[in-house]
From TrEMBL:
This is Tetraspanin. Disulfide bonds join 141-174, 142-158. It comes from Ursus maritimus (Polar bear). Keywords: Cell membrane, Disulfide bond, Glycoprotein, Membrane, Transmembrane, Transmembrane helix. The gene is TSPAN5. Signal peptide: none annotated.
Length: 256
C-alpha cells in the first residue's frame, strides 16, 4: 500500500472550501426563501451572486472528493478523474484568458450588457443590490458607462410616468463620499441627474464602471497576473501530485 500521508492527498483543501462555499450559498438561498419556493430561482431578471458560491463550491467539492478519496482508497479512477477535471479547468482558464485578450471589444460589450441587465433588476434581489453597491463604491463609478444608465431601472428613470421618489436619481453607492460623515446617507442620490452635469460631478460619480474596471486592471496588472499565475501553478501541482500517486499505485500493483 502507498502511504497517502507521505505522498500527499490532492484535493483536501478544495474539498473543505467546496463544502464551505456550498453551505454559504444554500444558507443565502434559505434566507431569501428560495429553498421553500424553488420556482423563484427563475424569477430574478439579473444575476444572483449566490450562483457563484454554488457553482464554485460544487466544482471544488467534486474535485476535492475525487482527489482526497482517490488518495485514501488508492483509487486510480478517482485520481485520474481529478487530474483530467483539473486539467480541463486549467485549459478553459487559459483559453478564456487568450480570448479575452484577443476579443477585448467583444468582452467590453458583454460586460456593458451584463451590468445594464443587472441595473434593471437592482431592486429584485438584495444580494444583487449589495453586489452592485459594492462595485460602484469600490471603483467609484455609476452605471456601466455613466450615471444615465440608471434610466434602465423602473425606479430611477426620468420618465414622466415614473412616480417613484427615486425618479431621475441614482443609488447611494453612486454618491461621492464625505469623510466627515459617519452615517451613510441613503438619499444622497435623489434627483441627482436632474442637476447640470457640472453639479452632478460634485455629488455623484459620473464615470462608468466598465472604464473604471479597465483602469483598475491596468493599475493592478502585476497583482492580477500574479494571482492567476499562482492559481495556475497550484493546479499544475495538483495534477502532477495526482499523476505521481497513480504511478506509485500502479507500480505497487504491478509488483504483486
Amino acid at each position: 500500500m502507498i502511504d497517502a500521508s507521505r505522498t500527499g492527498q490532492p484535493g483536501v483543501p478544495a474539498w473543505f472550501l467546496g463544502i464551505a462555499f456550498l453551505g454559504i450559498g444554500l444558507w443565502a438561498w434559505n434566507e431569501k426563501g428560495v429553498l421553500s419556493n424553488i420556482s423563484s430561482i427563475t424569477d430574478l431578471g439579473g444575476f444572483d451572486p449566490v450562483w457563484l458560491f454554488l457553482v464554485v463550491g460544487g466544482v471544488m467539492f467534486i474535485l476535492g472528493f475525487a482527489g482526497c478519496i482517490g488518495a485514501l482508497r488508492e483509487n486510480t479512477f478517482l485520481l485520474k478523474f481529478f487530474s483530467v477535471f483539473l486539467g480541463i479547468i486549467f485549459f478553459l482558464e487559459l483559453t478564456a484568458g487568450v480570448l479575452a485578450f484577443v476579443f477585448k471589444d467583444w468582452i467590453k460589450d458583454q460586460l456593458y450588457f451584463f451590468i445594464n441587465n443587472n441595473i434593471r433588476a437592482y431592486r429584485d434581489d438584495i444580494d444583487l443590490q449589495n453586489l452592485i453597491d459594492f462595485t460602484q463604491e469600490y471603483w467609484q463609478c455609476c452605471g456601466a458607462f455613466g450615471a444615465d444608465d440608471w434610466n434602465l431601472n423602473i425606479y430611477f428613470n426620468c420618465t414622466d410616468s415614473n412616480a417613484s421618489r427615486e425618479r431621475c436619481g441614482v443609488p447611494f453607492s453612486c454618491c461621492t463620499k464625505d469623510p466627515a460623515e459617519d452615517v451613510i446617507n441613503t438619499q444622497c442620490g435623489y434627483d441627482a441627474r436632474q442637476k447640470p452635469e457640472v453639479d452632478q460631478q460634485i455629488v455623484i460619480y459620473t464615470k462608468g464602471c466598465v472604464p473604471q474596471f479597465e483602469k483598475w486592471l491596468q493599475d493592478n496588472l502585476t497583482i492580477v497576473a500574479g494571482i492567476f499565475i499562482g492559481i495556475a501553478l497550484l493546479q499544475i501541482f495538483g495534477i502532477c501530485l495526482a499523476q505521481n500517486l497513480v504511478s506509485d499505485i500502479e507500480a505497487v500493483r504491478a509488483s504483486w
